[in-house]
Specification:
The protein has about 120 residues and is an all-alpha fold. About 90% of the residues lie in helices and about 0% in strands.
Length: about 120
């Protein structure tokens, strides 16, 4: 049963990621060539960011870790990752669109959240 639940979760995650790729591609007006070079970097960024967020979540759920860790350190790691990848993205899509990526990413998350809330309220 756990394997089935994980498979369902992985499928849902993959579906959302595919929608996100399409959304980012459209809103940043990525050419096929740019997309081919951008998304491997995005995947690295996403993996690194998930790792930081997971560590932050684990810290929040462990009482002794909560006393020994500083939330601001996790926030700083997230900002540092964004700065690092903004410069990497800029090499592929230029500075303006590299900065815009983070706004587009947040818009997608907001849209997804609204959609989930809408489904809940039906």
């Amino acid at each position: 049963m756990l394997t089935w639940a994980n498979a369902q979760s992985d499928e849902a995650y993959d579906k959302i990621e595919n929608q996100k790729v399409a959304y980012v591609t459209k809103h940043l007006n990525l050419t096929p060539s740019e997309a081919q070079r951008f998304f491997p970097l995005y995947n690295q960024y996403n993996k690194s960011m998930r790792s930081v967020k997971s560590a932050k979540s684990n810290m929040l759920s462990n009482q002794s870790d909560r006393r020994n860790n500083d939330m601001i350190e996790f926030d700083a790691k997230e900002v540092d990752l964004k700065k690092l990848y903004r410069s990497k993205f800029a090499e592929v899509i230029g500075s303006a669109r590299a900065s815009e990526f983070f706004m587009v990413e947040q818009e997608f998350k907001d849209m997804l959240y609204r959609e989930l809330q809408s489904r809940k309220n039906r």
